């Protein structure tokens, strides 16, 4: 085996070795032996000049292509000769030359490093590749000067060198967002070769800066009752971070009360605080809103500020009337100055808008007394009378001093409690009643009625009958009459008899249910009206039952001689006692007549011889009642021939009737008295 050593990249025809010399043979012999060169590879890198025995380079030899990173590179040849056949092995070692500079995979590399990366953090850089070997391969790296990174070259067991950037100083994106470095790779050749790569380092933002408001606190002033959507203030916060770390969202802090959150709302994008609820100065004069601004980083950072909102009062609250003490029922005899209600007034506004004045109508018997600020007493100003006005609706008006003023009206219903200060009053001072006699027992004669303007128990009336002064002590009205205690109906206990009692007078007393009870009286006159309940009674001539009275007259009696007189009386009065006499039957009609009113029986013509000697007369006495009542009497007139006897009969008749004038006078007087009393009663009744 023959061994040669040549460098790579020799030009074609370059000398490698002299095979004849190295084999120790004659050059001519090699030519005669038909020398051939056989290569193990597909390419014929070498050729042999058979005339000289010199081995030359026939093709370009690139060690890196042939052997890669192997430290030693060999090409093997075989020499074949004939006569006799012999083979010789030739080994050509290809030596590396520094024909390749180190090369990076790219001209530029970009790194993204978190700005909060810890010191000493390592960031590998894709190493450069140098196909040369030995000292000609990559030997070292150089990093351009900078403040934050150092270079560390990590050697592997296989000889490879890997560069690493080592963070020596903390990064701050807000100070410097990009770093530009140059990394140089250099081999050990002579002269050395090198290549460079540009390293662009982008410092990734870390959420290391919290939002900052342009002011630590904000102030605003609003009028209460501002409409919904009114802009309160626009907040402005900035964050020097970028991306989500610098994207700010505004919100109301959780320290705010739920009530405040209902009144104010904030736009999370713009930071505008607007009114979304009712602003009421009376509930709060100042609102302090805690606002927080948060970025969208991870973790999220926040900042707080306060917004002080002052509310300006307007006259938007009417006065309020509060009854501290109130009695809706008041006794009608309460003296003036009696306290009916204690009233507290208030106005939730401030200043003059919160000052309240109260008054009531001057037409009412009430007045307001100011006890002290915000308190009034409602008093009675005059005497009260429930019977005149039973209740009052007292309107208490409260108005503030705002512009325009607001007012509130409260109605206090006051009911006057009754006092028994009114006696019952009859509808009539006296009552006059006409009652027909023989009335049925229990019939209502009259209803007396009284009224009492008091109420309830004080107006519950009770009626009773009292004897009237000046009446007959023996005539007790309660014997004949009764009265219903509540309705006032006067009823008859017994039927009246005009012939016994013609007139009753009594008092009806009414009393209320108060304590003490009040009373009043009225006088009742009861006039008994006569009824035709008595038939006429004949008292002359007197005759027994079923018998007739006889009278004797002379046949010579001439008309209009008085034969006799029928006398009757009637216990009734008035028309019922007006009597009339009627000749109903006669033996000789037309011979005798009866006076209609006086009852005198007279002869109407001269007696004839042919006339009967006895005449029977039926006289009926009838009153003028409706219906009329009557009584009949039978008379027998005997006609005698002898004059003296006739005369004597006549005289006897006169003697028998000697009492006639006195009786007649009595009847006339009785009729006059009865008529007078009846007339007076009718006149009084008419009045």
UniProtKB/TrEMBL annotation:
Annotated GO MF terms: calcium ion binding
Topological type in the membrane: Single-pass type I membrane protein
Domain Cadherin positions: 6-104, 105-213, 214-321, 322-426, 427-538, 545-663
Alphabetical list of InterPro entries matching this protein: Cadherin-like_dom, Cadherin-like_sf, Cadherin_CS, Cadherin_N, Protocadherin/Cadherin-CA
Entry coiled-coil feature ranges: none
Keyword Nucleus: no
Pfam families: Cadherin (PF00028), Cadherin_2 (PF08266)
Keyword Calcium belongs to the record: yes
GO biological process, one term: homophilic cell adhesion via plasma membrane adhesion molecules
Keywords: Calcium, Cell adhesion, Cell membrane, Glycoprotein, Membrane, Repeat, Signal, Transmembrane, Transmembrane helix
Ranges annotated as spanning the membrane: 663-685
Subcellular location: Cell membrane
Primary location recorded for the protein, binned into one broad class: membrane
Gene Ontology CC annotations of this record: plasma membrane
Signal sequence bounds: none
Lineage: superkingdom: Eukaryota
Protein name per Swiss-Prot or TrEMBL: Protocadherin gamma-C3
Protein's organism: Oreotrochilus melanogaster
